[in-house]
Specification:
By secondary structure, the chain is mostly helical. It is built from 4 helices and no strands. The model has no long low-confidence stretch (mean pLDDT about 80).
Length: about 130
């Protein structure tokens, strides 16, 4: 070891990490609820279907499920589009009430129109305490 105490400290920290990661992982993932969720989510145990099952009935049930999923997706798409239309109408009403669609900062003072990073403008020219450095 060339680094002396610093090298020993580094090696001890690395050894602690090498021990800590597997122990933590085994404690976290050894919970029955986590194992059940992982088995269900990743479908670890998929067995072939029973040879006595009626494939025609199984196909029909899968087809029906898929059609229901497609109908639900269409319904959700229509609902989202309706929500977007309501939002557009609200924006139109707000802009009409404000005075004909002016931008939000047109009537504001110049110190209020600086934007999100307006506080950094003083730093650009080296003057940290600049109020409105234009």
């Amino acid at each position: 070891m060339v680094l002396g105490r610093a090298g020993l400290r580094l090696e001890a920290q690395k050894f602690a990490v090498y021990l800590l990661i597997p122990i933590t992982a085994s404690l976290a993932f050894n919970e029955p609820t986590v194992q059940k969720w992982a088995a269900d989510y990743f479908q670890f145990m998929k067995y072939p279907s029973n040879p006595k099952t009626n494939l025609k009935d199984e196909f029909e049930s899968l087809k029906k499920e898929r059609e229901e999923e497609i109908a639900w997706e269409r319904k959700m798409a229509e609902k989202r589009e309706k929500g977007r239309e309501e939002y557009r109408n609200q924006l139109k009403q707000l802009s009409a009430a404000r005075g004909g669609g002016q931008a939000a900062g047109d009537d504001a003072e110049p110190s209020q129109r600086r934007g999100w990073f307006g506080w950094m403008r003083g730093w650009r020219w080296g003057n940290i305490d600049a109020g409105d450095a234009r």
